[in-house]
Amino acid sequence: MSISIVIPNYNGEELLKKNLPKVFDMISSYKDGDFEIIVTDDCSIDNSLIVLNALKSKMSSIYKNINFKIVRNEKNLGFSSNVNKGIKEAKGEIVILLNSDVIPEKGSLNPLLKHFEDPEVFAVGSMDKSIESGKVVLRGRGIGKWQRGFLVHSRGEVNKLSTLWVSCGSGAFRKSIWDKLGGLDTLYNPFYWEDIDLSYRALKSGYKILFEPKSIVLHEHEKGAIKSSYTSSQVKRIAYRNQFIFVWKNTTDLDLQLLHLFWFPYHLAKALVRRDWNFFVGFFKAFILLPKIIKSRFRSKKLFIKKDQEILIGLN
Question: Domains of the chain (ranges plus CATH)?
């Protein structure tokens, strides 16, 4: 089995220094595949490229059987576009996506990759030991429910293999199905909801999405690019916008579409009372993207064979 590890980076020089050598260590303990590592730099303005070139020189002399490639964008494209570019460069049958703030534990590959013996498996997510306010929260398995016209997602207990989505920060994906689905939708740039959207489309297209608790990564969320590059208001606006995009793009059950319209005045009134202007900005930004959303919806719908309500059965 050939495996590509794709690491999207933006202004992560310190994280790369600390975490990239540990990715090489993880690979060295796995003997059953051919590996390459691709770092896609989204036009960083720090010293990421200097760090990457130094690491490439050092690691290439130690791990001679691992091809290490650096891809640099000439302008900042956003997470989805940056990941898509890395996977386009990938030659592996299986692509493992790791954020620069993720540290994989040794021995995490075997349990992750064994699931791909089933050709219907599209993606498998890892157990995410998330460092949040000095505490470790176990993440990686997602659940969701339709509530008041939106898909509400949350962390699921990590004792089941089922999951609603696989994170593009710590998951493995079958490249042939990724290409068939069209990869991450760049409508969600710069970040949020893109991996939920991809997994949801895969599930509606009849493929399997799994969670593997024995594949463990450490995730230092608070050191990532989002926390350091965007204000809380900017993050909220993007999150609201992308929630609208997800519903408008993916729902095909008529009852869910009608419920979304029914509850919309309630959400507007609630945001007005709370003076949550980020909600209105997010809605407006989604609305002006409506022609692109409809076009993307038309492409995705061609592959759908399941109803929305079928996707959530047995998850919670």
Answer: 2-229 (3.90.550.10)
